[in-house]
Amino acid sequence: MRNGGRGERASLRRAAGAVLSESAGKKETMELEDGEEALGGGERVISVSSSDSGSEGDEVAALPADTTSPRGNKASTPRKSSTPGERRRRTIYIAGRPPWYDSHGQIAEAFVIGLAGGSASGKTTVARRIIESLGVPWVSLLSMDSFYKALTPEQNKKAAENEYNFDRPDAFDMDLLVETLQKLKEGKHVEIPIYDFSTHAHAKYKHTMYGANVVVFEGIMAFCHAPLLKLMDLKIFVDTDSDIRLARRLRRDIAERGRDLEGVLKQYNKFVKPAFHQFIQPTMQYADIVVPRGGQNRVAVQLIVEHVKDQLKQRGFNNRPKLLAGQRETEALPDSVHILPNKPQVKAMHTVIRNKETKRDDFVFFTNRLACLAMEYAHSFLPFQVRGHMKMWIM
Fold first, then answer.
1. 111-314: which CATH number, 3.40.50.300, 3.40.47.10, 3.40.50.280, 3.55.40.20?
2. Element at 338 (helix H, strand E)
3. pTM of the predicted structure, to 2 decimals
C-alpha cells in the first residue's frame, strides 16, 4: 500500500464510487454539514469518503434495506473550502431514506408516546393496539420493566421471600432509562438490557433496538421522573379497576414469572397497592389522555391513533406523496455511482430477501452474500497494478 497524497486519495475515492443494487430503486439527495451523523444503526449500508481541508466535497452513497423510494431534488455541486475550519456541504446520494428523516432530508425526532398506569392495568395491550392501528412500519416499543436494577444477594433473598419492594422509583435505573429514551428519540440505535424476573438479574446478552417514527414507552413509573416526562410528546394514563388489575397480576405472575398465589397476594397488599396510591395514581395529573378500561377501550385507542397520525404528518414523516411528486425517471446517476449488474443470481437473492416468509438464517445468509458481491464489484473500480499473478491495489 502506498500513500499518494491528498489529491490522489480524493481522486481514488471518486473513482471507487459507490455500488448500489439496481432493484434498490431510485436515488434521492440531501445535504448534511460536516460533523453531522447519519443515524439509525443498520437500516442502510453507507459508504462515506472523508475529505481533507481544501479538497473537493465529500460524496456519500447509501443503500437502504427496505423498499424503493423515488428521487428527490437534484444534487448540489460540492463547494471547496477556502479555510481549514470552514464547514462544507456534502452531497448524499440515497435510494430511499430511513424513517427518522423528514421529506426534506433532515433528521427529525421520533414521536414518543408515554404510557403509565398501575400494575397489570393493560399498558402493554394499549401499546400494541396503538401500534397495530397506526399502520406505521417503524415503531419501537420500550418497556420500563427492562430497566429494573439487578439485585444484590441480600436483596435477592428478600425477593424470594416476597419482602423486597419492586414498586418504587429507585428500583429502576432511571439514568440509563433516560439516556436510552433520548437516543431513541434522536433516531439512534440502543442496547436494551433483558431482565429475568425469576432470578431478578440481567441476562448476559442485550436486545438491540433501532430508531423509528414512533417510540412507545410503557411502565408503571413512566411519569414519576421529570427528565422522562420531558422526552414524551404524548402522555397516556391507563386507568383500570383495582380488582381487575389484581386478577390479571395473579394470572401473569403465576403463569409467566414463576410465583405462587400466596406470595403474589402478600406482595400486592404490602407493596403494590400502597405504591399505586403513593407514586402512580398522583401522576395521572401529567397525562394528556386518560384511557379507562385499558385495551378494551377501542374508541379511546382509535382517537389516540388519529392524533398521532396528525402529529406525524405535521412533522413531515408522511413524505411518500412528496417524493413521488418529485420523481424524475430520466435523471442520470452521477459518474461516481455504479449499479451492480442485475444478473439472475442477484435477482434470486433479492427475491429471497424480500419474501416475508423467508427464515431468519436465510435472510442473513443472502444479505451477507449480496453485500459481498457489492464489495467485490466496488473493488473493481479501484486502480491497481498487476504484479505476477496478484493484483496490488494502490491506496
1. 3.40.50.300
2. strand 337-340
3. 0.59
